[in-house]
Design a protein that fits this description.
17% of the residues lie in helices and 20% in strands. It contains four helices and six strands, in the order H-E-E-H-E-E-H-E-H-E.
């Protein structure tokens, strides 16, 4: 995939004028496919493994639930956390993925049309059905 193609059929100019720092946009199927799945270098198990590494900056957000609202846990995590987390309403986020898994470092290059000072790191998330990061500003 070449630089700028990460937006699929959406023109870079349109993205920058109408979406960048203004409103969310969902871009489906922009990564090349390898069989049935997108050719992304990590799957959910790989990401969970990274979240267990001592130097990884990871967090799990659960909720909301009627009793406790939102919950946040910071990693690194023990593998047992993933065995007991359930199958709904949680999201795993891992920062600096390109530093922990170098092949993922190719992905930010797809967005080289963005000002480099605006790009900090590659954060990858995995959400179970119903999962969200909840209300936040970053």
């Amino acid at each position: 995939m070449t630089a700028g193609r990460a937006l699929g059929h959406l023109a870079i100019e349109t993205f920058l004028a109408e979406y960048w720092q203004q409103q969310p946009v969902l871009l489906r199927d922009v990564l090349p496919r390898d069989g049935e799945r997108a050719a992304f270098p990590l799957d959910a198990n790989d990401l969970a493994g990274l979240a267990c590494e001592p130097l990884a900056e990871a967090r799990i957000i659960t909720g909301p639930d009627a009793e406790n609202g939102w919950s946040l846990q910071h990693g690194p995590f023990d593998e047992a956390v993933f065995d007991g987390i359930g199958d709904r309403c949680w999201t795993l986020l891992v920062q600096d993925v390109e530093k922990h898994y170098p092949p993922a470092g190719e992905l930010p290059r797809l967005f080289d049309f963005l000002p480099s000072w605006r790009v900090d790191d590659l954060m990858v998330s995995f959400a179970a059905p119903g999962g969200s990061v909840g209300p936040h500003v970053d």
